[in-house]
């Protein structure tokens, strides 16, 4: 299957090499790691990190003793992930995984669903994850909130631009996230309840939904909190206590849905 050329070009610029390791996106990284550490089967379970980018999560999983294989459609990402200790990486598509049925103890979809604007493609990716995981294994999928684009534009100070507002309001209505900047991000934003319907239609049990960043990613001084180890742990603990509150799920930039088959 062919990746959208605009999305491929966006990632081939290399932004994913540092995205989860710098700035406020570190909150997404640390919170994803926190939830996975509590929900994954113990090492040395076999983990398929599908759409795993440059290996930000594959790296710590391998370091903690997991048998990790990363699959990603972007050659630059696979090249970078291949250099990480203990990580096997290859090109592949979440909608057509070249693995045997029940080959993994856990399948992670930490990127694919928010780059598949067609619902049929998202269901295919989820169905492939279900096929690839053993009975009793874990499937975890990340999504971008339907409301993230508006929140992010206000935070970044670009919401005053008419073209930007129009794009964000379209995202609210349709889920299609299309940055008006040349070469900008393209994706799909989920309503929190859409996750439940898509998991069900893909034959997966109802997942537990975790709001990863909560509202904390919108705080102007969030980087100061993340830079200070003590304050960071306080912030992560607060996010953990609020992570499954239904009324707060949509305000989080990203959500993680976790189920066992």
From TrEMBL:
Residues 48-140 form the Methyltransferase type domain. Signal peptide: none annotated. SUPFAM superfamilies: S-adenosyl-L-methionine-dependent methyltransferases. It holds the Pfam family Methyltransf_11. It comes from the Bacteria. The keyword Cell division does not apply. GO terms for biological process: methylation. Keywords: Methyltransferase, S-adenosyl-L-methionine, Transferase. GO terms for molecular function: 2-polyprenyl-6-hydroxyphenol methylase activity; 3-demethylubiquinol 3-O-methyltransferase activity. It is an enzyme of class 2 (transferase). Its EC number is 2.1.1.222, 2.1.1.64. This is Class I SAM-dependent methyltransferase.
């Amino acid at each position: 299957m062919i990746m959208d050329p605009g999305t491929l070009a966006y990632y081939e610029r290399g932004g994913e090499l540092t995205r989860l390791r710098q700035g406020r996106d570190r909150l997404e990284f640390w919170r994803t790691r926190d939830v996975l550490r509590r929900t994954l089967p113990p090492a040395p379970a076999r983990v398929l990190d599908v759409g795993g980018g440059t290996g930000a999560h594959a790296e710590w999983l391998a370091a903690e003793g997991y048998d990790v294989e990363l699959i990603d459609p972007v050659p630059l990402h696979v090249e970078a992930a291949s250099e990480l200790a203990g990580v096997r990486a290859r090109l592949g598509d979440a909608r057509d995984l070249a693995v045997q049925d029940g080959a993994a103890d856990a399948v992670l979809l930490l990127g694919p669903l928010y780059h598949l604007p067609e619902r049929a493609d998202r269901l295919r990716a989820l169905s492939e994850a279900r096929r690839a995981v053993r009975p009793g294994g874990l499937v975890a999928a990340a999504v971008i909130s339907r409301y993230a684009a508006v929140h992010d534009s206000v935070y970044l100070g670009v919401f005053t631009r008419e073209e930007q507002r129009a794009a964000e309001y379209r995202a609210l209505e349709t889920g299609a996230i299309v940055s008006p900047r040349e070469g900008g991000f393209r994706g799909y934003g989920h309503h929190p309840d859409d996750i439940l319907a898509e998991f069900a239609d893909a034959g997966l049990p109802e997942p537990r939904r975790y709001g990863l960043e909560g509202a904390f990613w919108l705080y102007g001084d969030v980087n100061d909190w993340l830079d200070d180890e003590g304050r960071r742990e306080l912030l992560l603990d607060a996010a953990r206590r609020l992570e499954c509150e239904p009324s707060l799920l949509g305000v989080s930039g990203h959500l993680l849905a976790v189920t066992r088959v």
